[in-house]
Amino acid sequence: MGATKKKGGAKSQNAPPKKKQKNEFFTAKGAKEDDLSDHSDSPDEEEVLEQEEFDGDEQDFGSGSDISSDVDDPLANDFLQGSDDEGSEKGSGTDLDLDSDESDIEEKSTIIDLEKAREKEEAGEEMQLNIKDESDEFRLPTKEELEEEAHQPPDLSNLQRRIREINRVLSNFKALRQEGTARKEYIEQLKKDLSSYYGYNDFLIGALVEMFPVVELLELIEAFEKPRPICLRTNTLKTRRRDLADILINRGVNLDPLSKWSKVGLVVYDSQVPIGATPEYMAGCYMLQSASSFLPVMALAPQEKERVIDMAAAPGGKTTYIAALMKNNGIIFANEMKAPRLKSLTANLHRMGVTNTVVCNYDGRELPKVFGNLADRVLLDAPCSGTGVISKDESVKNSKSLEEIQECAHLQKQLILAAIDTVDANSKSGGYLVYSTCSIMVAENEAVIDYALKKRNVKLVSCGLDFGRPGFIRFREQRFHPSLEKTRRFYPHVHNMDGFFVAKLKKMSNLKPSVETSEPSETVEQGLMTNEIGIGMNTEELTGSATKENDVIENGKNRKKRKFPSREEISKAR
What we know:
Blueprint: H1 2-34, H2 42-62, H3 64-69, H4 74-135, H5 143-150, H6 156-171, H7 173-176, H8 183-198, H9 202-211, H10 214-224, E1 230-234, H11 241-250, E2 253-257, E3 265-271, H12 279-282, E4 286-288, H13 294-300, E5 307-310, H14 317-326, E6 331-335, H15 342-351, E7 357-360, H16 367-371, E8 377-381, H17 396-399, H18 402-421, E9 432-437, H19 446-455, E10 458-461, E11 469-470, E12 474-475, E13 478-479, E14 488-490, H20 492-495, E15 500-507, H21 519-533, H22 539-555, H23 567-573
Parallel strand pairs: 5-6, 5-8, 6-7, 8-9
Antiparallel strand pairs: 1-3, 1-4, 2-3, 9-15, 10-15, 11-14, 12-13, 14-15
Helix pairs in contact: 1-2, 1-4, 6-8, 8-9, 18-19
């Protein structure tokens, strides 16, 4: 026992230094991994420490029989506990590093979670605030408030807010309207606010409100405030689109193909050189032309060796496009009524290398007397009010009136009848007329086509354009022919091009309908017939004979129209 105690005392005295050595060993080992400069010294220290550890273990194993014989020996328990402590101390160095890294990751993840929770809370509060604002009832301004506003400079922010609120109310009128307030009152206030904010006159803003829903109306007006993209049309008589694009890109022009529907168009985003003064422009390789101007020529689809009339040709963008599609074959009659515009038309024809065009200066309404019905195809890009190109000419906003629109419509009806009369219905490849305007007014578009359908033997055919909105077949109290769905309308807020209208007509017969004679002319002819026949006959006899003739015609199975003497017979009778 004394020996055992002695050994135990010796072991207890040697144990603490042993643990210290092991701690130093792990510390040295960790330093070895971190500091490569001390790499050469660390192996010697490691060998010494391992040798001492091995010797101490051999001494401990030498007294293993005594420890196993007495399990309750406290020294044995201390030894076993000490070995556990040593194992825990071995991993403590690396565990501290891992714990510190894990703690940093946990802190970062906690911060991210807190930020997400805060953003979610703020979004919820904002949504609740928006819901609260929308739930609040919007009230129209009173007369006193409007009078006060009239005496002050316009408050643009207030006008914009009110336009937005009225738009919201009208989109869900039953739920959001003010009690005792009719829809008409909201519309009237919206008209006034739009006129003040955007600068339109009362007539034009009223016409637009009648044509479009409120939400779409605001999109259209906003689109009119932005310029349309600059477009080029490649002159295929001189170059190809790919070659032209490469040359212009090398000159610093940023461009792309226009769209899938055009094989010759390019859209220009920006340019380091004046796009209208490049050597390629001067050489006639391209034409500056809006995308909407491509559409009438594409609808016309002229063929080689045909006779084509362009009734309003200046400045020549559409005429040169027709010549390119015809490959300078056939013949084109480019007519322009205004003599000063003939210079630009002729200059562009020469620059673009067009050689199959004859320039003439006639009033379009007189062309049937000049050409007769010799044309295979006719293009009528009629003069109009320009309500589709407000982005180019802002004066349209406050310069157009109902009387001016009616005057344009009257001229357009005369021109379209003259254009139909110049088309040859017996043409083997043609017999087509394309009517187009840069206006969005119904009176200048659908009403004109409907008038032509009633006055001439024509019918509407497909324009051959895969996009665009169909024309109106009913507008307010007006009802048009159902085939007007084949016409096409284009809008800046939908198609990113100027407002445009295109219709294609096929002439069925060169004969004019007899219904064309109007009542005043019949009255004059009847009076002349009375002078011719009624010599020696009184008025009652003439009336009686006319009544009998009408009865026979009405009661007969084959109802025939009354035949009046020709003008030659009447002139002879005179």
